[in-house]
Amino acid sequence: MKMDITEKTLGIVILNYLNYKDTLECVKSLLGQSYKAFYIVIVDNHSANESYQVLRNKFSGVENISVVQTSANLGFAKGNNQGIKILKEMGIRKVLVSNNDVIFFDKYYLEHLVDLKYKSCVGMIGTAIINADGGNHNPVPVSNLTYGRFRMYEIAASFKCWSTRYVPGIKKLYDFKHSLVKKGTSQHIDGSHTHILNPEFEMLHGSVLYFTENFLNEYDGFYPGTFLYVEEDILNLLCKRTGMRQMYVSSIVVKHKEDGSSDMAWENRDKRKMKSHYQRQSLRCLDSLRRKPVDQLKIAFLQC
């Protein structure tokens, strides 16, 4: 029997790919929350291991958790959108999308989240996200990276890799230059206080993202045209072009372990290659969206 859905019900989407142990730990931390009016949809992204069966067996008797599996690996955006779609069909219009390697260690996290007051322009909310090194993911500086610029970086990186191997002494020169560039170009983003983000300079990290009813009454989740990477940049573009805004809340905190699923999916020797492939693919999408008029940009978010 499923739980009763009310206006106060918070939807939660967790995308699983291979790494079901992290998913189990994430859900355990959610079930320990003080706020209980939530419904979790775990989307297994067609894992090529026992993930779906393990998760389905574990949560088959839990009334506020559903486990579904996609027919293929849909990637990050479409995979999460599958979960959002299920929740919207249930009448839920406030959805927290979380990576499966996130720990909700503060038992009042959801309670504080649903109690937040925000303006009608706020479509997405992000909180402090502490990474494995103790730093805060949020907010993220806007990079304005393009496909062409990324390809130039890749070529330069390839040359650097070759030259440091075959040209004696050049590594010291590269290290010195890098230290100068880092000192001169580091961009400071203030994550110490709650505020509405300026989409020209800052955006929210995608590992834990709360979509409000202001967003989900109009859109169905992430832009569905990417497989992996740049999802946050595309949401930021939508904000920049439409007047929708993101809000950062510094007082609510989660922990993010990072990259568990990609580490399992790709061998170490393949990880850099696969990451570059999907970054190139997604940056092409972003470049295309930047050229669209605002009405076509909105339509692009609704295409399957």
TrEMBL record:
Metabolic or biological pathway, per its Swiss-Prot or TrEMBL entry: Cell wall biogenesis; cell wall polysaccharide biosynthesis
This protein's record includes keyword Glycosyltransferase: yes
Tagged with keyword Transferase: yes
Residue ranges constituting the Glycosyltransferase 2-like domain according to the UniProt record: 12-171
Pfam families: Glycos_transf_2
Family: Belongs to the glycosyltransferase 2 family.
Domain of life per record: Bacteria
Residue intervals passing through the bilayer: none
Name used for this protein in its record: Glycosyltransferase family 2 protein
Organismal lineage: Bacteria, Bacillati, Actinomycetota, Actinomycetes, Bifidobacteriales
Keywords: Glycosyltransferase, Transferase
Source organism per UniProt: Bifidobacterium adolescentis
GO MF terms, alphabetically ordered: glycosyltransferase activity
